[in-house]
Amino acid sequence: MQKKSIQSFVRFLMLAGMALALTACASTRTLDPTAEQHFDARYDFSDKQRIVEVLTDSLLNVAYASNETEKPIVIIYGIDNETTEHISTSGISDDIRLELIRSGEYRFINRQQRENLTEEADYQYAGFVAPEQRVSEGRQLGADYILGGTLRSIEKKEARQWRLSKSETIYYSMNLELTDLKTGEITWADNVEIAREASRPIIGW
């Protein structure tokens, strides 16, 4: 009986030591979101940063979308994700919109809040808000341009064969375009291409 107790105690110490070792191995560090960092060939936040920077600069380095004296009013209809990955393309369009708003060269309609705007207006006209404080109906801005695009990818992996490591190459293409709402004409378009190859050991952590 005493022998079993000793064995159980030793087993407990071993498990406790292993848990302590695993805990000691865990660590965290703060990364610079502006620095280019890639851990594999897949799309990451550095790629998003490059896409946003290139396309925003392109939009700002051309003349106004037209010869209008007022700043163009834009509405974003999203970026289609045609890759095989679950990429939040709304993060790309949101960051592009943010940079363009900061530049003061474009104005944007908040498409995501349209239902809320209607709901709030209905509430105000339901008798809960004094008439002089209600929003005026029919005063919302109309868009001059639609901003939208597509993110695509091509993935290539090495054929099955005896190797100590395997590699993959992924090509991303991000296309963005500005369409005149009155004429349907594409008045501006540009794209960003990213190709990356990564390899890792077949056996490893």
Report what the structure shows.
This protein has 205 residues and is α/β, with parallel strands linked by helices. It has a domain at 40-110 and 141-201: Rossmann fold (3-Layer(aba) Sandwich), CATH 3.40.50. It is 34% helix and 27% strand. The protein has helices at 2-25, 45-60, 90-103, 114-128; strands at residues 73-81, 107-108, 145-157, 165-180, 186-201. The protein has a five-stranded mixed β-sheet, covered by helices on one side. It is flat, with a radius of gyration of 27 Å. The mean pLDDT is 81.
Concise synopsis of the structure shown:
By secondary structure, the chain is α/β, with parallel strands linked by helices. The protein is 34% helix and 27% strand.
List keywords for this structure.
5 strands; alpha/beta; Rossmann fold; five-stranded mixed β-sheet; 205 residues
Which residue ranges are poorly predicted, with pLDDT under 50 across at least 5 consecutive positions? none
Distance between the termini: 41 Å
Strand count, sense and barrel status of the largest sheet are: 5 strands, mixed
- This entry's quaternary arrangement is single chain
CATH domain class name of the domain at 40-110 and 141-201: Alpha Beta
Number of strands: 5
Instruction: Note the overall shape.
Output: flat
Strand order of the largest sheet: 2-1-3-4-5
Order of helices and strands: HHEHEHEEE
> Mean pLDDT, as a whole number?
81
What's the architecture of the domain at 40-110 and 141-201 in CATH terms?
3-Layer(aba) Sandwich
Structural class: alpha/beta
* Helical proportion, percent range: 25-40%
Instruction: Note the total helix count.
Output: 4
CATH topology of the domain at 40-110 and 141-201: Rossmann fold
What is the percentage of strand-forming residues? Answer: 25-35%
Rg, rounded, reads 27 Å
